[in-house]
Design brief:
By secondary structure, the chain is of the alpha/beta class. It has nine helices and seven strands, in the order H-E-H-E-H-E-E-H-E-H-H-E-H-E-H-H. It comes from Darwinula stevensoni.
């Protein structure tokens, strides 16, 4: 419980937090960024988030069947940043996410399961959908469950190489590379927010100046 309080983690549903405008600072003057997680069901997206936020891995968890966000405050380069990590929480079983899931996203973490080849093959589908909504946000690829399949760390993968996406070999079970993955994603999200390159973001900035 203390770890949860120290990390200021807040879970909430999509609808209750949809009013937050990630293109603006929070009421407290903090920078706010949105990091989305994508990948097939049961690849460990929620477990990775829990490991990063509370450093506690729970082997059993019931699906919430709803979009979920994990709110966290971090200090990056002496700047307080409010980070919302968006988790599919079961909706990915429909092989597509609602456009609102991608709206105003600043970075994306694509996750696949080192023990299930199909989850790797499906990354291309998720990536194409991501780029349809967010053409230019930074993207990261995470190979989860390396504690079960250590040999995968010696392999190279065509998907991240083809799209020039950094790859991280991680384990939600023992925490390997989890902090680095999420910290790098947040830092990239901040850089993107300060210098957006998506067409929609540029249009919004121009409208705000007029």
């Amino acid at each position: 419980m203390a770890a949860q309080q120290n990390n200021e983690e807040i879970r909430d549903s999509l609808g209750e937090k949809a009013e937050l405008d990630y293109d603006e600072k929070t009421k407290a003057g903090e920078l706010a960024v949105k990091v989305i997680c994508l990948g097939d069901s049961a690849v460990g997206k929620s477990k990775l988030l829990e490991r990063f936020l509370v450093d506690g891995y729970k082997p059993q968890q019931l699906s919430t069947y709803a979009l979920t966000l994990y709110r966290h405050r971090m200090t990056i380069s002496d700047e307080s940043v409010l980070v919302d990590f968006w988790d599919t929480a079961g909706q990915e079983r429909f092989q597509s996410m609602h456009a609102s899931y991608y709206h105003q996203g600043h970075a994306c973490i694509l996750v696949f399961d080192a023990t299930r080849k199909i989850t790797y093959k499906n990354l291309t589908t998720w990536y194409k959908e991501l780029r349809h909504h967010r053409p230019s946000i930074p993207c990261f690829c995470a190979v989860n469950k390396i504690d079960v399949n250590e040999e995968v760390t010696q392999r190279s993968f065509n998907f991240p190489a083809k799209y020039d996406i950094p790859i991280y070999y991680v384990s939600a079970a023992n925490g390997t590379n989890v902090v680095k993955l999420f910290t790098d994603a947040v830092e990239a999200a901040i850089r993107y927010k300060k210098n957006p390159s998506d067409f929609n973001d540029i249009i919004l900035e121009e409208l705000e100046r007029t």
